[in-house]
Specification:
By secondary structure, this protein is an alpha/beta fold. The protein has 9 helices and 7 strands, in the order ααβαβαβαβαβαβααβ. It has a 7-stranded mixed β-sheet with strand order 3-2-1-4-5-7-6, sandwiched between helices. β4, α6 and β5 form a beta-alpha-beta unit. It is globular and about 45 Å long. The chain starts with about 20 loop residues before the first helix and ends with a strand.
Length: about 250
């Protein structure tokens, strides 16, 4: 770690890009992404609310800057999605909650381009993107600055020898707890039975994450506010999706 590269770096596995982007997607990556990208900063110094001081110009009307660039958007709170995939869930939640600021982290450019397309088409001024490992982003966020976090269908790494690559580990939950506000909501979803079991154990063992389920349907049935993703519809896991909701009590 250096002054020019303030964040810790974690190893990412797999490809960072699939098939080539379309011309339209590439244009959004080149022109829109820099305007809504979450910058790199020193550990613990990134104020999420500060990312929304200036709203992007009329996203649904084109990429040109205009007088709307000077209009401030002041969210009541900020929500974080870790690994947003194709962006369906993040875009859906952002459209529903126009008074909330959303930060999404995703290392793969294909998913970033898909989310940019939705931001552009739907005119979502309340979304900011970090292309990269969410663990680095979490390390940079200011303490107690996130009111809700989503971790939906992260890579399950189903082989036993690869489980250490899973995102949900005690060390990561400890890092995440630093940036969560008191009473923050956290949702974890997976369609791999072993991951669900181990993640629940890690969350509850931490002691600061209170599982809200009162009956089996609370984790077997998608929450009423859930936005279904393309990955979820593919049914690639070894069990029906499970949704684990927690309240953060420091």
């Amino acid at each position: 770690m250096t002054a020019d590269d303030p964040s810790p770096r974690h190893r990412l596995y797999g490809r960072a890009q699939g098939k080539p982007l379309s011309k339209r997607q590439q244009a959004l990556v080149d022109e829109l992404l820099p305007r809504i990208a979450v910058p790199e900063t020193a550990q613990g110094q990134l104020d999420p609310l500060g990312l929304f001081k200036t709203a992007p110009a009329a996203l649904n009307a084109g990429l040109r800057r205009n007088e709307q660039d000077a209009q401030a958007f002041k969210p009541r709170e900020v929500w974080l999605e870790i690994g947003f995939g194709g962006g369906e869930h993040l875009a859906g939640q952002a459209a529903r909650h126009g008074d909330v600021g959303f930060i999404g982290a995703e290392p793969f450019i294909d998913g970033v381009a898909k989310l940019l397309t939705q931001i552009h088409e739907r005119g979502l001024a309340n979304v900011r993107i970090r292309r990269g490992d969410a663990r680095d982003l979490v390390a940079q966020l200011a303490p107690a600055s996130i009111a809700r976090a989503y971790i939906l269908f992260p890579d399950p790494w189903p082989k036993t020898r690869h489980r250490k690559r899973r995102l949900i580990q005690p060390a990561f939950l400890d890092d995440l707890s630093r940036v969560l506000a008191q009473g923050a909501r956290v949702r974890f979803a997976t369609d791999w039975a072993d991951y669900g079991t181990r993640a629940l154990a890690d969350f509850t063992r931490d002691g600061r994450y209170r599982w809200t389920a009162e009956c089996a349907d609370d984790w077997r049935t998608p929450p009423a506010d859930h936005v279904t993703t393309r990955y979820q519809e593919k049914r690639l896991g070894d069990c029906a999706p499970v949704f684990l909701d927690f309240v953060f009590d420091a």
